[in-house]
Amino acid sequence: MGNREDLLAGARRVIVERGVAKATARDIATAAGVSLAAIGYHFGSKEQLITEALMESLGDGIGDSMEAVVGETAALPLLDGFAALWNRMPEVFAANREPLLASLDNTVRVLRDPEASRHLAEAAGEGYLGIAEQLRAARPELSDEQVDAVAKLDFALVQSLGILWLLAPDSLPSGDELARAVAVIAGAEPPAAASPVSPAG
Predict the structure, then answer these.
(1) 26-80 pLDDT, tens per residue?
(2) Residue 60: partners with Cβ closer than 8 Å, 6 or more residues away
(3) DSSP string for 13-68
(4) How far from 5 is each of 33, 34, 51, 58, 80, CA to CA, in Å?
(5) CA 23 and chain centroid, separation
(6) Are the CB atoms for 176 and 88 separated by under 8 Å?
(7) Which of 105-114, 136-145, 174-183 has the weakest average pLDDT?
């Protein structure tokens, strides 16, 4: 790995061990085995490094799980696949509880810094692209406009329902309920209750 990748890995280790609030630039540089100046060179600031490290961690954990379900449900009608995905998401959130908490903590801190907020906003604006890539591969019959619309909805739901799951996991709507709401809004018939997709072996 290069210094940039070492810093991302070091930041993730320090965050897990000490939390976002106690993660110092010196601790991260030491964990990465690089100089303190490397943080500024590669990321501009410790805050930007932590933000990217957390987004990468959530992308690996939540994004990879979503990609697996999207692939597994590719043969289903689109709305049934959507229901199956969101029926599975509570267990995905549970498996990524600590990164979700750290990301929420970091977001609150970043919002107090205009420059860091700008970087976070730019990253969030492109956050749906990974989901769009998964959908495009699994459902080539969809147009680019359709893929982007579904991916943006999924991304918005990940952000909002991830926080809701942290606060009140039992209040999370099921995938079937979400699909029914989409069908009602669109004036379509709601799908039959989807069976949860078994985790990939």
Answers:
(1) 999 999 999 989 998 888 888 888 878 877 776 777 888 898 999 999 999 999 9
(2) none
(3) HHHHHH-STT--HHHHHHHHTS-THHHHHHHSSHHHHHHHHHHHHHIIIIIHHHHH
(4) 11, 11, 14, 16, 38
(5) 22
(6) no
(7) 105-114
